[in-house]
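REVIEWER CHECKLIST
Item 1: Sequence provided? yes
Item 2: Single chain? yes
Item 3: Sequence as submitted:
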Amino acid sequence: DAKTRTRLLLGLEECIQSGVYPLLWETPHYAAPLADYRVVSQTFSAAVERRQSFDRIGSDQLVPYVVQKDRFGQLLLPENLGYVPLDDQRSEPILEAARRTAVVRDATVGFFFHVFCSPGILEEIADGLLAQGFSFPDVRSLPLSVTGPDFHWSTMEAPPPASPPGAEARLIDSSGAVVWRGPPKDFPRDVAPDLG
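Item 4: Structure as written out by the authors:
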């Protein structure tokens, strides 16, 4: 637990120094001991992935909907369509998985796309999903927050913490811009900050 927490917080410090404020967690290759999921859930309010149900590679669960609160207390957005492999860049496997998932009423779908794959394939997938009736809502409209020992940031939809930790807290608007930053004691709880 301590090693995982240390690595997670060091990574987030690098993000902060670069002006990047991630809102969602994805476990590398969807594989982690359950103890690691617990550690991550203490920092990230939400994740986008397929979760292992017990400590065995390949026990990840594909769900066709958003899990409002998983066993670790996180909002879980599904990654249930797979990914586009570098050596077989085709849209059809993702679109076929979406067709199969669509038999579930109000299904939610997600997939992983490496930034080094062809953007044309991503466009085919997006167009194909739209043609199947899926949409692409902005995750920043969800109540997301990230909290560590000396930082906190959240979307406008997240309930403000009673006492944000750390030396500085941030509030992020729907475009991803930091609209308020300051000492935790001044975190805007009762009045929405001026968005300009």
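Item 5: Key structural point noted by reviewer: Residues 85 and 165 are 40 Å apart (CA to CA).
Item 6: Recommendation: ____
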